[in-house]
């Protein structure tokens, strides 16, 4: 609640500063210096401005209470829902724009409508002795002052709300509202719009203010301003507007282009495409941002390489441990991984897909670590109960690999480990999946695993020759094994035989 109270205090100070600069500093000074009226009429106008200012404050305070309510609710309630937090954070990010809206509507209208109404009424009943034209000038001047005030308040509020938004995000993370925080990332004011409108207003505001002050002064002195004065005034005003538009466009496009370049490279990082911004063409702070981005990418690449080395080392240790436990299956996982990759190549897989397939295949039997020695190392035929234990190894393997953190690094390996004993006809294990419901890696590893099991020597039997193993694969093509995987694997074996002959 402390940060909320501090924000309210700063917003009040900002509003006071903005009001003094815009309404009192510019508006009242302009009225006093430009108007040539009696002192009693000037005093009456100042009183009208004071009463209108009070009405404006009341209306704007009500609007402020409505705008701040969702934020106040988050800081005052002991239990907040994710939806309440989301709307509060959206409101906090939109608050600078809401400030502009309040100044454009309740502020400007709350000030100008009562002032115009009271002034016209007093002129009509002959209490206030000023020309009606002054009311038109005042209305135009109030519009300029409101625009100035809105711009000042926008940037002051933008700076003030940042600590509050930061505190709200920390609060949201503590409550697990991560999705709500991500959803508010789309709430922002484009840099091009912010800079463009600011430069445009800064460029033409002094000119418009000077034109208004001069027009009021000359009108008060009874001079004819519709001769050559307005011709030059329009020319100067058009030149100022065109120059401001040009400056706003050049400046905003320069900043926007720099930001777009950085965002483009950052989006590549999100896709794990670690490309450096080699051409540092900037001569401002974006040069430092470019250097910082490149340092970040270098650090990510270095960390990513270490993670890959750690994962590969983990895989090697696990497969070595399994091979050391069962000497008769030593090298089996390595051969199955090589066969699986050859099938993957003929399916047109990418290098990244082949890497994941290799890792999944080399770990496919890791669950056998959890099988008791008297069953895993038994020389003779297994009993039904013993074979039931063996059938647990795909699930055990999946559970073992799930312990790796972060899980994202091994998530793609799990389906192949769990499903490499599934059958196309649904008679496999552990889930009895059918056809293409079996994950792709599982269908590939099943063929590679079966072939190596048939052609490898065991204590209780000698491995069969390649031709016999191929004939068994063809017999089970479309029932036990995926037909396309069998065809790809046999194509690999045939290519290997042709290479041996040549």
Summarize the structure.
The chain has 502 residues and is mostly helical. Helices cover 75% and strands 0% of the residues. The protein is elongated.
Oligomer: single chain
Number of strands: 0
Biggest sheet, in brief? none
Order of helices and strands: HHHHHHHHHHHHHHHHH
Measure the end-to-end span.
81 Å
> Poorly predicted ranges (pLDDT <50, ≥5 residues)?
none
Radius of gyration in whole Å, from Cα? 38 Å
Mean pLDDT, all residues: 83
* Helical proportion, percent range: over 70%
Class computed from helices, strands and strand pairing: mainly alpha
Query: Can you tell me the overall shape?
Result: elongated
Number of separate structural domains = 2
Count of DSSP helices? 17
Proportion of residues in β-strands:
under 5%
Pfam family, one: HD_5
Main location: membrane
Domain HAMP: 253-305
Domain HD: 329-454
Descriptive overview:
The chain has about 500 residues and is an all-alpha fold. Helix content is about 75%, strand content about 0%. It folds into two domains: about 1-300, no CATH class; about 325-500, Hypothetical protein af1432 (Orthogonal Bundle). Helix 2 runs antiparallel to helix 3, helix 6 (about 190-220) runs antiparallel to helix 7 and helix 7 packs parallel to helix 8 (about 285-325). The chain is elongated. It starts with a helix and ends with a helix.
């Amino acid at each position: 609640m402390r940060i909320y109270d501090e924000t309210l205090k700063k917003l009040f100070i900002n509003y006071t500063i903005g009001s003094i600069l815009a309404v009192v500093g510019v508006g009242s000074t302009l009225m006093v210096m430009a108007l040539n009226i009696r002192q009693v009429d000037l005093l009456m106008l100042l009183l009208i401005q004071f009463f209108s200012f009070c009405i404006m404050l009341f209306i704007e305070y009500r609007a402020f209470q409505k705008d701040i309510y969702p934020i106040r609710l988050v800081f005052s309630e002991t239990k907040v829902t994710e939806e309440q937090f989301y709307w509060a954070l959206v409101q906090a990010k939109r608050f600078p724009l809401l400030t502009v809206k309040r100044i454009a509507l309740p502020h400007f209208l709350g000030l100008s409508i009562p002032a115009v109404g009271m002034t016209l009424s007093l002129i009509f009943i002959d209490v206030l002795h000023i020309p009606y034209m002054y009311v038109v000038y005042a209305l135009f001047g109030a519009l300029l002052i409101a625009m100035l005030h809105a711009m000042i308040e926008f940037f002051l509020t933008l700076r003030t709300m940042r600590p509050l938004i930061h505190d709200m995000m920390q609060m949201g993370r503590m409550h697990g509202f991560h999705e709500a925080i991500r959803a508010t990332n789309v709430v922002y004011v484009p840099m091009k719009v912010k800079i463009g409108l600011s430069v445009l207003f800064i460029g033409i505001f002094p000119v418009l203010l000077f034109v208004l002050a001069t027009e009021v002064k000359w009108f008060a002195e009874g001079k004819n301003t519709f001769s050559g004065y307005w011709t030059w005034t329009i020319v100067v005003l058009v030149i100022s507007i065109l120059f401001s538009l040009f400056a706003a466009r050049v400046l905003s496009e320069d900043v926007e282009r720099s930001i777009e370049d950085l965002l483009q490279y950052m989006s590549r990082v999100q896709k794990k495409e670690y490309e450096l911004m080699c051409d540092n063409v900037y001569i401002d702070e974006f040069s430092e941002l470019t250097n910082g981005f490149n340092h970040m990418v270098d650090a990510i690449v270095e960390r990513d390489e270490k993670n890959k080395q750690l994962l590969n080392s983990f895989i090697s240790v696990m497969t070595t441990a399994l091979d050391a436990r069962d000497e008769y299956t030593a090298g089996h996982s390595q051969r199955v991984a090589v066969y699986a990759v050859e099938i993957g190549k003929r399916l047109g897989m990418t290098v990244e897909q082949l890497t994941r397939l290799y890792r999944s295949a080399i770990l496919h039997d890791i669950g056998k670590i959890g099988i008791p020695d008297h069953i895993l190392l038994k020389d003779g035929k297994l009993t039904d109960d013993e074979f039931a234990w063996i059938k647990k190894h795909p699930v055990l393997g999946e559970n073992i690999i799930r312990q790796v953190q972060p899980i994202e690094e091994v998530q793609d390996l799990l389906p192949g480990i769990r499903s490499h004993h599934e059958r196309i006809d649904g008679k496999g294990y552990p889930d009895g999946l059918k056809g293409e419901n079996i994950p792709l890696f599982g269908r590939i590893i099943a063929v590679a695993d079966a072939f190596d099991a048939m052609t490898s020597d065991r204590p209780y039997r000698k491995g069969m020759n390649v031709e016999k193993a191929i004939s068994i694969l063809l017999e089970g093509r479309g029932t036990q094994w995926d037909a396309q995987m069998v065809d790809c694997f046999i194509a690999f074996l045939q290519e290997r035989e042709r290479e041996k002959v040549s």
